[in-house]
Amino acid sequence: MITVVGMGAAGAAPAGDVPGNVAEAAELVVGGRRHLDAVRLPEGAERVVLGALAPALDTVAEYVAEERPVLVLASGDPGFFGIVRVLAERFGPELLDVRPGISSVAAAFARAGLPWDDAVVASAHGRDLRTAVNLCRAHPKVAVLTGPGAGPAELGAALGPDARVFVVASALGSAGERVERVTPAEAAVRDWGSAVSVVLCLDEARAAGPVRTVAGPPSGPTGWALAEDAFVHRDSMITKFEVRALALARLGPRPGDLVWDVGAGSGSVAVECARLGAAVTAVEKTLDGVERVRANAAAHGVDVRVVHGTAPAALAGLDGDPDAVFVGGGGRELPEIVARCARRARRAVVVAVAALDRVPAVRGALAGAGLECDGVLLQSSRLAPLPGDVHRLAAANPVFLLWGVRPHSPTEGVAP
């Protein structure tokens, strides 16, 4: 009893998009003004211009209760970040007759001449832009559905100087359609108006992937807590894989997240978080360390933004609050570094500490920022060969792993 019709490539609504019998039978028609203006409807049909969703759904409910036919007009594919979700939740999918058009994402990739079975898609329409920004940083091919205050200019400004390219698709399917290639910096200083449909964010050096069997971004790694020899490092100055395994479990990096690795060293934690789909910023004080982090990121095919600087001062210049932070290293500044990270972390801070004397101060810094604290002393022994094809246990240096979790930390959904 509710027919949902997706119109045009991305909102342009030629009358031919709606079958005549559907339009003629409708007693209630709900849609955007441009959709309603483009379709010939029976004179007696009630029209509801979509603005606030709740009143429109209440009107639909009245017609459904009386078993009177309803027509809902939407842009593109209404089952893709569209009105089908709320209609199905309110009225049940069995009452819906969905007739999709071409989604704006499909149309934008078609105009760009690119496949999109390996793309990540995020909606910034009525949502926090940070998730889309983090996805653009972490993945080579991202489509962002735009909205007021979350368009190419805002996305470009948030990404800052970046090697990526934007394909900005405006007014798709209409006479005024425009598809432009710009840098994020160029996008940031433009007034794009309200006609932008979707922004494709491309890291062209990494965008060409292999033939796919499963759609969506590349699947996550088959394993993590990689062996130390998977990374270039100096004099065994690297977070050991046993410690890294638990640190990753407590950090919980995922697509759409921003993770900081402070005192990155070789960047092993940063790289592993990036392999799991998060956007990552690594802070490292030495120039040779910066180069090691970049080399390790390149070797594993991930993008890690590296900041050359000494914490805690370097933290002030980092844009955006992280979802999770890993702090490695030590020194007298460690409690202050942890405190600053803990004040900005949205979800969790994990700290690796070698010196027993630092533990109380680190716990105090985590608790002082309102985080719920816990920790463990990790002591491991690895198998080491001996002559005669036998083995002994070689003990690794013990490490305290402390973490703080923010109560009721925010979560955000991401659609691959």
Structural commentary:
There is one protein chain. This protein is α/β, with parallel strands linked by helices and 416 residues long. Helices cover 28% and strands 25% of the residues. It is built from 13 helices and 19 strands. The chain has helices spanning 20-25, 33-38, 53-65, 84-91, 104-112, 129-138, 152-159, 184-188, 241-251, 268-275, 287-299, 334-344, 359-368, and strands at 2-7, 28-31, 46-49, 70-75, 96-99, 120-123, 141-145, 165-170, 178-182, 196-202, 258-262, 279-284, 304-308, 324-327, 348-353, 372-378, 381-386, 390-395, 399-405. The strands form 4 sheets. It has a 7-stranded mixed beta sheet, with helices on both faces. Helix 12 (334-344) runs parallel beside helix 13 (359-368). The longest helix is centred in the N-terminal third of the chain and has 13 residues, at 53-65. It is elongated. It starts with a strand and ends in an 11-residue tail after the last strand. Residues 10-15 and 412-416 have low confidence and may be disordered.
